[in-house]
Amino acid sequence: DQLCAICEDMYVSYNAAATTPDTHMDERLAAHQVPDEKDRLFLRQVFYGLIRYKKLLHVLIQAFYFQNSSVASRSDINTFTLFAFFTIIRLQDLGFGPYRRLVLSQDGQKMLVLLHFIFDEEMLNNFCRDEWMKLYDAQYVDNLITNILAYLPELDDMIKSLEHKVYLSKKKEEDEAAAFSGKGAASVTVPKPFKLSESRPPLIEPEYIQPDSKKAKPAPPRKPPGTLNKQQQEFANLKEQNRRTQQLTYSDPNKQPFKLLTQDRPSNLDQIKAQVEAKIQEECPFKLEEKAKPPPPPPAAHVRLNTAAILREDAVYKKKQEQEAERIKLYEADLRDDSEFRKWQTDMRVKDDQDRMDAIEKRRAEMEAEGEAAKELRSQRETEKVQKMREEAQQIQEQLRAERAAEEESNRERRDIIIEARQGVKVAVEKLEDAKKARATELMKEKEDNARRLAEERALEMVRKQDLIRQLKAIEAIPISEVEKYDPTTTKGQGLLEEMSLRELRERLEIMKNRKKQDEIDRRCHIVANRQKKEGILVAKAANITRIRDMANAQAALRRENVKQNERLQKMAAQRKCEDEMLVLHERLEAKHEAYKQEQLRLAAEEKAIKFEQTKAAASKGAVEEKNFKELRRGQARELKQKQVVTKAAAIKDEAGKARTQRTRKSNLKIEQHEKRNFIKEFDDRLKLLTTEHIQAQAQELERKQTLVRVEQERYETMKGKGLMVSHGTATPHS
């Protein structure tokens, strides 16, 4: 137990930023005074192991607290970390015997919770394995988990003893309390009611009196719908006047267009147009609306640069210029550049990324296969574990029955001993009460002595104060001589080096104020000059940035034009290729179509000849014509129906597009209105806040100035009054 406490202290007090592990170990070993060399070696190995496997243990402890936050305290995190290290890393080196002694030296409940978590294969695989694989190799992690679970059979006896120690101790206390309460002679507590004051009677609300109802004023007369106000009436009159003016202007024959003789010739063009339009409208009954014009492009926004943006962009351009200069210098020295290397580097990175993705996919497939195998093995082990736990539970119940009988017998004997011991309690209580009474008498006497001594001291203090008052009154009765007039041009005559008159002091203060004011003016001029210089530099840099941006925009436009030209050429080449292929395909299809058409014509001729023979033999000429007329009408109906379906689909598509555009416009309009309202609201709130702060600042400044004036006036009056006071000798001002 002492070694574990020293290990925890060394691990907690270590600060990697302040000292090295060796120095820290030497200091802590010297502080704890560990004499045994083996213990010192053990402590060093444990401390170095905790530092080395800190991340691995951190993952385990975080998962442990995540699963056992209700039964494990955060204050025991160092103890759990230490024993997690013993269990996972050092169990093979320590051996099971020393490890058992270390575990049993600690609190059984804490160790039981930790061991249940560490030796649970499902917990390790679900909560620790993936995080450990981020730190170590997968094979190492699997070997680590396998080595931990290898000690599970030997650990069962230790876990049983811990469970017996934890659970049976609590059961023993409960049984002892039950046995004692069942047969003991303890008195029963009789509850007594509290002496509570009576509650106040509830307040009676006064009866509600209905006030006199006031009659509302009659509603103003409403104007009939369609009535215009004064402004709207003026606008309508002006509109009618303009219409009449235009009508009079264009009614003049001189301003009418000239007539052509061809306009008077008879023509049926309008009738033909009406017939064609009527025929089209019959085929297409749906009315198509005109599409809205696309919105104009947004205006180009002008970005105004501030000082930080100018300096930052200028630094970026300077850095690019330095890199280009360095690249040109290397090219001049080596007569080659790194474009080939960069191209090879880019290709290799793409290839590495592809290889890594392939490896990840392969690893994922392997992990899925391993996961399935692990699930089957886990289910098999859980079945065996449940069977084993049932047998152990039956054995524990039998053992509990035997121990409970022995505990009941020992409780009976203990009860008899307690009854005998209670008989001597009354005598001890009486002795204690007598001692308390004697002590209370002594305290009362001591209190009376202290009060008497305090009264005497107060009487002496009162006599001393009265004597002081008489002395002060006698001093005040002495007359004071008249005050002589003070001369501000004279000095006191003490012979000091810095001695001067009040007039000289004021003159020097005035000179110092003027000098300070001149220095302030000079500093302001210097600051303004520096500011103008900086502004000139910023203007030059902004002009340079604008020039560079214009060049970059021109180069970007040229690159975009080149890209568009290349895309256009590629598209034209692809189109030509596609057209050539389409021509070849068209020729092949035409050949096939022609062959198919010839075959159909041949079959139709044969079928027609057969039908003609059949019709000639079976029906008359009228039946044949009627059948042909019906087939013709059916074909026209199918054609009109197909046109109607296509036209309807196009109309529905256009309507959906218009509705989508309208919804988008409404949504954008709502968003703009909402943003505008928010901006106006924030601006108003900010303006109100600034106005309030400005008013408060003005009030505070006015109050401060008034306070300064009042203090200065009081000081002046005080100095003026003290200036009339003189001592017995030379006149001096009192400061």
Features:
mainly alpha, 735 residues, disordered C terminus, extended
In whole angstroms, how far apart are the ends?
75 Å
Helix/strand-derived category reads mainly alpha
Count of DSSP strands: 0
What's the helix-strand series?
HHHHHHHHHHHHHHHHHH
Number of helices: 18
Mean pLDDT: 78
List the uncertain runs: 179-186, 724-735
Q: Sheet bearing the most strands, described? A: none
Radius of gyration: 55 Å
- Give the fraction of residues assigned to helices: over 70%
- Strand percentage lies at under 5%
Q: What this model shows, in words?
A:
With 735 residues, the protein is mainly α. The chain is built from 18 helices and no strands. Helix 4 (54-67) packs across helix 5, helix 8 runs antiparallel to helix 11 (152-183) and helix 11 runs parallel beside helix 15. The radius of gyration is 55 Å and the shape is extended. Residues 179-186 and 724-735 have low confidence and may be disordered.
Write the layout of secondary structure elements.
Layout: H1 2-13, H2 21-32, H3 37-52, H4 54-67, H5 77-88, H6 91-94, H7 96-104, H8 108-118, H9 121-135, H10 138-149, H11 152-183, H12 230-250, H13 269-283, H14 307-334, H15 339-422, H16 425-476, H17 502-618, H18 621-723
Helix pairs in contact: 1-3, 4-5, 4-9, 5-8, 8-11, 9-10, 11-15, 14-17
